[in-house]
Amino acid sequence: MARLQIREAVTLSQDFQYRNYPFDRQTVRLDLRLPTVQLSGCEALVEQLRYKETLDFQDSNKILPQSAAWLWDHCGTAGGGCSAANIEKDILIARASLQSESAGSRRGDCQLIFKIRRNNNIFIIKQLVPSIVISEAPLLSLYMDATVPPLVGARASLHIIALLLVVTRANADPGLGTLSSLIWTDEFALVQFFVILAGLVETIAVHALIRFGCKVLAASVDGVFRILLPFVLFPCLVVGFILKGLEQQAGFLLVVVGGLLLFTSGSAARVLYKDWKIQRNRQMMVKKLKALNMESNRSKLTDEEVDQIMRKTFDSFDLDKSKKLEKAEVRLILDAMYPNLGRKQVTTAMKAIQSDAIVYEDFAIAVEEWQKISFGKTEEEQKKRTILGRLGFGSKSKKAIKAWRSAGSKVAKASLAKQSKQVGSSEPNSAKLQTFQKTKGGAPEKVADAAAAFAAGLDKANSVRSSVV
């Protein structure tokens, strides 16, 4: 028996799958074979390789590179310090070689299998974390006030810059050679791109709603998306795609689909609820503010309670929390408090607003002016009310009484004219006059009775008015 000992360094090409890069796991197959030579001891070779990987000291004869770019799949080490149970899962003999050697046949080859995975710690620190920060920064900029034009421009600029950075980083060469399909980093870059684009679209939509006067809806949409985009949707997509890279398909589908459903349903529900809550809060506070006009109610409230009602009303219309109210917001409060004011009264009331935006103190002064204008309008309306109106007669009753009075006056004039013509006639004519008065005299008598009742009503109204005064 001849023994041949040869040591050679060879480079073997492997068909690696980079789809999950940098979370890819690879299976390396090594087929040892010499022409016309029968090889044996494959199992002994494997046991020797496994034994070296369980040693703690560093040895140049370790299988994996010393740079620690690759790790054993189950052991998680680049060389040494691996347990025997785990290394048996990473260094294997092909089933065909194992069966042939156990059967005693001489095939003359030894097929070995090595299971390794990429060490992605450097990638996570240098590539993944900065990419997440680049995507999260513009989403957090949604907390900038969308009602201030310079801040809206800053939000849009941050989104555009982030989009450019994501595209630039995605086009960087990872050093894997020519690739024929998308890998994990490309898919993750697309996710970043569309999430940042969603933030940019939201900024433009909110600004458009404010320009068209839908400030409450704009505040509701902005308040919802500034929470759901950076803290719900994007984290779910990041975690889901990391699970996909780790070949956890069930977890990937659960997190991504669940996150999308939560984002869609939660955004719609929260926008509607927040819009309803703002409207209800405004109506309630305006109602309380308007109730301060009643002297009886004001006497029951302390100065602190009155100040609290006015301050809460101010805050309910100050959606951007700038501690100022614009003229349009002040006009909304005025219309809600006094919807029946005329144009002159509204113009007079708005004259109390001296600038485009007022603080709380100026708002309190304006409310006092509105109360005076409202009381003045009420007194004028009370002066315009007639005595019949105070007695409870409506407009129809007034028209009926006027028609009744005009008809009675016409009948009275006609009867007096006939009586005057018959003054110089004979006795039979006087008898006819008496007969006419008996038959036709009912109408003047009724007119006289109505006039007497009307005069009594006037006297009663005057007495009531004098007693009130």
TrEMBL record:
Positions with biased composition (Polar residues): 419-438
Gene3D superfamilies tied to this protein: EF-hand, Neurotransmitter-gated ion-channel transmembrane domain
Keyword Oxidoreductase belongs to the record: no
PROSITE patterns: EF_HAND_1 (PS00018), EF_HAND_2 (PS50222)
InterPro entries assigned: EF-hand-dom_pair (IPR011992), EF_Hand_1_Ca_BS (IPR018247), EF_hand_dom (IPR002048), Neuro_actylchol_rec (IPR038050)
Top-rank taxon: Eukaryota
This protein's name: EF-hand domain-containing protein
Residue segments, region Disordered: 419-441
Lineage: Eukaryota, Haptista, Haptophyta, Prymnesiophyceae, Prymnesiales
Transmembrane spans: 152-170, 190-212, 224-243, 249-273
Organism this protein belongs to: Chrysochromulina tobinii
GO MF annotation list: calcium ion binding
Positions of the EF-hand domain: 305-340
The entry's keywords: Calcium, Membrane, Transmembrane, Transmembrane helix
